[in-house]
Design goal:
Length: about 425
């Protein structure tokens, strides 16, 4: 068996991640990996690398038999998918950082890996420097994986930290995230939750064998979160974070979403500031584990690409164990969530859709309630994203039927007393 394969790399893209990888590889000669060609879009742009490395001709990589690894770190997901498909079909291993492309094409990518037998690795596509995919894939048996709760987008976490802890304005905080190379070229992908939801789709595949498109997930970003929500959070000793969550319910199905959430100040995720990401995994016997690291930026992302390259030297492939070797789980909407909702006018809030309203506060400008609602109502309705309404989940937001019955029973007993 070939053990330490020499890697001859064709690199697509020389932006924040591509250039980071170029520099990181120069500092790691022990990896026995060299970049032979870099395909870029704009040949006029000045770059800090020898001019002969660059070309605009994708076939200079895809049709070169001496190149055995394609690293694809470009922005546009359509062309990225074409590159990955051709590379795999041409017998090359692929390392990709394109989360949007992976989320949009996961079924085809699974099929291509099976057809060609080639390896496609993408550790850098979620949580950058945190080795979350390989851990989910290799370490956790899905029967024992009770829940995952994570901050998977560095830019929104950076913006929330700067706004609510350092009192910067939203625009200023976003501009800084862009300048530091954390944000997407279209930053609405970060701010409106698309990037986090894209990452969550394939993390769900590695965690639970679920293969779903991003638009099948209920998600939101931080665009509706108000300063007054942060004030309420502080009064209650909470922080607000954009949290991706998945939990196995009693019926064996999985509840999953990406939404802003109140986090106890003692929670592991409250520790995650700025562009850092964090993942809290609860599993049988091990109890809670917390993974923490930089989730965006040139070197942290390049470090995950480097780790994938290193894994290719010993022919590592994702086996998609939860999908192919276990009984894959299904997503469900059949649960309840406890939410905080702030709004200008109660007439925009369908109160009748709530199972319970537990707290109610009417300030001069802004009002809020805390209540329990069936998750299905969030999937079906848009009212919680409209009319200047802000929805933030409360800590431990997922409730099942039995718990709702118990809460209702207790409140009835309390009322009778
Ligand atoms: N825009 C992404 C983020 C980059 O902020 O997390 C890393 O995937």
């Amino acid at each position: 068996m070939e053990t330490h394969k020499q890697l001859t790399i064709g690199l697509f893209g020389f932006g924040v991640v591509g250039e980071g990888l170029y520099k990181v590889l120069q500092q790691t000669p022990s990896l026995k990996a060299s970049i032979k060609k870099v395909v870029i879009k704009n040949p006029e742009k000045k770059r800090e690398a020898p001019a002969e490395l660059f070309t605009t001709d994708r076939n200079a990589i895809l049709e070169d038999p001496s190149i055995n690894v394609v690293v694809e770190v470009i922005n546009e997901s359509g062309p990225a998918f074409e590159i990955v498909r051709t590379a795999l079909k041409n017998g090359k291993s692929v390392v990709s950082a394109s989360k949007k492309m992976i989320a949009e094409h996961l079924p085809e990518l699974l099929e291509l890996q099976q057809q060609t037998g080639e390896s496609l690795l993408y550790e850098s596509a979620a949580c950058a420097s945190i080795p979350v995919i390989r851990n989910l894939e290799e370490y956790y048996d899905n029967d024992l994986l009770h829940s995952i709760k994570a901050i998977v987008n560095g830019s929104t976490n950076f913006i929330l930290t700067k706004m609510f802890e350092e009192k910067l304005g939203f625009k200023e905080a976003l501009a800084l995230a862009q300048k530091l190379g954390f944000a997407e070229s279209d930053p609405s992908l970060d701010v409106e939750g698309y990037d986090a939801a894209n990452k969550w789709t394939f993390l769900l595949t590695h965690a639970y064998g679920i293969v779903e498109r991003t638009d099948k997930l209920v998600f939101n970003g931080i665009q509706d979160v108000k300063g007054s929500d942060a004030d309420v959070a502080r009064e209650k000793r909470y922080d607000i974070k954009l949290v991706a969550q998945a939990k196995k319910l009693q019926n064996g199905k999985v509840a999953a979403f990406v939404l802003p959430q109140f986090i106890h100040q003692e929670d592991h995720l409250a520790f995650v500031k700025n562009e850092y990401n964090g993942v809290v995994i609860e599993s049988g016997f091990a109890d809670k584990q917390f993974f923490y690291g930089k989730g965006a930026g040139s070197f942290p992302t390049a470090s995950a690409v480097l780790s994938d390259l290193s894994a290719l030297r010993y022919q590592y492939k994702y086996e998609y164990k939860k999908l192919y070797h276990h009984h894959p789980h299904e997503l469900t909407d059949d649960f309840y969530v406890r939410v905080y909702l702030s709004f200008d006018d109660i007439r925009n809030i369908p109160k009748e859709k709530f199972e319970l309203i537990e707290e109610w506060h009417a300030g001069k400008d802004r009002k809020y309630l805390i209540g329990v609602i069936h998750f299905h109502e969030l999937r079906e309705g848009r009212w919680w994203k409209e009319n200047n309404t802000s929805l933030v989940l409360t800590p431990e937001p997922i409730l099942e039927e039995e718990e709702i019955k118990k809460i209702k029973r207790e409140s009835l007993e309390f009322a009778i007393q």
